[in-house]
Design goal:
Length: about 130
């Protein structure tokens, strides 16, 4: 099963918790056992699984990524978003999530985040469940 979802990000760097959207899609799929691949088809955005119970975790991740890869650091890329490309490469463009008994097998505190590094924008996320 293939699905495409669209989201709008609000800031240049924005982490959007998409866990509940993914859970609903898994529920609608009626797939009891399988694997869901979540893929981001953008070079300045990514996807990650991390804690979604405490928002300070996302804040800390954003701060550390900015320290590692500052927005303005004399990059050669003429569009002015090299930092976004680098951050997206560090985070990654896909995650796989096991489905068992019709539910995503995430840990108690885990959530799935779309990571925007060059927003605000309208973005796509591709899902493949089998």
């Amino acid at each position: 099963m293939f699905r495409e979802i669209e989201i709008r990000t609000k800031d240049r760097v924005d982490f959007v918790d998409i866990t509940s959207k993914l859970k609903e899609i898994v529920r609608q799929s009626n797939i009891e056992e399988g694997l869901m691949t979540v893929f981001v088809p953008h070079t300045t955005a990514g996807i990650t699984i991390n804690e979604h119970a405490d928002p300070s975790v996302v804040s800390d991740i954003k701060k550390q990524l900015e320290k590692l890869v500052p927005a303005n650091n004399g990059y050669s890329h003429s569009e002015g978003n090299s930092d976004a490309h680098i951050k997206a490469s560090l985070i990654g463009s896909s995650v796989n999530i096991i489905i068992r008994n019709g539910e995503m097998m995430l840990g108690t505190w885990q959530g799935v985040f779309f990571c925007e590094f060059d927003g605000p924008r309208r973005r796509k996320i591709y899902l493949y469940i089998k």
